[in-house]
Amino acid sequence: MPELPEVETVVRELAQVLPGRRIREVEVIHADLLHEPPEHFRRALLGTRIQGVNRRGKNILLRLSGPQILAVNLGMTGRLLFRPVSGASLTTEGGDTATHEALLFTLEPPGVLLYDDARRFGSLERHHPREWEAKSKRLGPEPLDPALTSADFHRRLLRSRSPVRSWLLDQTRIAGIGNIYASEALFRSGVHPTRPARSLSEGESAALLAALREVLTEALQAGGTTLRDYRTASGGVGGFRPSLRVYDREGEPCPRCNTPVERIVFGNRSAFFCPRCQRSE
DNA sequence: AGTGTATCCTGCAGGC
DNA sequence: TGCCTGCAGGATACAC
Questions:
Q1: A169 CA, B13 C1': separation in Å?
Q2: C-beta separation of A5 from A178 below 8 A
Q3: Would you name the residues of A annotated as active-site residues?
Q4: Distance CA A163, CA A279 (A)
Q5: Which residues pair with A265 in a beta bridge?
Q6: Is the pLDDT assigned to residue A88 strictly greater than 80?
Q7: Which residues touch strand B (CB under 7 A)?
Q8: 3 state SS of A145
């Protein structure tokens, strides 16, 4: 589910409410989301203070006293929900938002941070800051970082002969892009998803970077795309779905030329594109 | 270096 | 209604 705009939306909400709160209790309901024994995880977090909330790629980063970093990856169906109250009202308030509770953090001043994840593909990992730094260096650049120039972007594309859609999904090449925005940016820039990354001209790669920035920014303004599971930290839905031009629109007319949108599968994922606007040669 | 495939897990839509 | 198949915003590990 959650790609850069969705994760950024959650981070911005959490950054308003979490800093300054202390973790008073940790309840691990589904230990398979952790990479350490649940009791170890719990003890390491008890009493720590949340100092800041950031994002790197699709990871939500809680900066904690200690210091340590809690890196939360939402996988496909994860939700990180905050309620300024504690206890029972969490499940009643907000209706269906908390349906698959996996971890519960009780905070002080009073509040509850809930990690909910139907498929449990997500993860919560504790790191020492410098350990996280090392991990972060293995991720590609942030697409919205102005320091990433189109010349840099093109140079990176030239290093790979894999299909450009697969390249976009590879977090070590560029961070934060997922299946929705890969299809959308390729459509907007007129690039066919199976084109080898290194086959893109300078002009095409500049257009692709511009399209990525455009679609990510627009989606962020809408609070992300809710297909099914994604919720903001306060339980809201993202409003970008109606603005998707090709993703999940197989058979519908291309908004530019009316040719039916096609779906192909490679790399185990669907890619949606217009066969006329995005030529493969 | 690449691709294709499988895996983790649950829920839902669609076909019959 | 029920059963079955396919599919889903991600990440990773494996064999070729």
A1: 26
A2: no
A3: 2-3, 58, 269
A4: 14
A5: A270
A6: no
A7: A 32, 100, 118-121, 159-163, 166, 228, 266-268
A8: coil
User: Tell me, in Å, how far CA of A41 is from C1' of C12?
Assistant: 23
Give the distance, in angstroms, between residue A58 CA and nucleotide B2 C1': 25
Runs of H (alpha helix) within chain A: 4-17, 38-45, 89-92, 129-137, 150-158, 164-169, 179-189, 202-221
Which bases on strand C have an atom closer than 7 Å to a protein beta carbon?
Answer: 7-12
pLDDT digits (tens, 9 = 90+) for A185-196: 999 999 999 999
A82 touches A113 (CB < 8 A): yes
Paired tokens of A209: 């970077």
Q: Quick check: pTM over 0.90? A: yes
Do the beta carbons of residue A224 and residue A238 sit within 8 Å?
A: yes
Q: Which residue's CA shows the smallest distance to C1' of C12?
A: A121
Predicted confidence band of residue A229 (pLDDT cuts 50, 70, 90) = very high
pLDDT band at residue A98 using 50, 70 and 90 as cut-offs = confident
Q: Structure tokens of A249? A: 């629109």
Tokens representing A18 are: 């979490």
Residues A204-219: pLDDT tens digits? Answer: 999 999 999 999 999 9
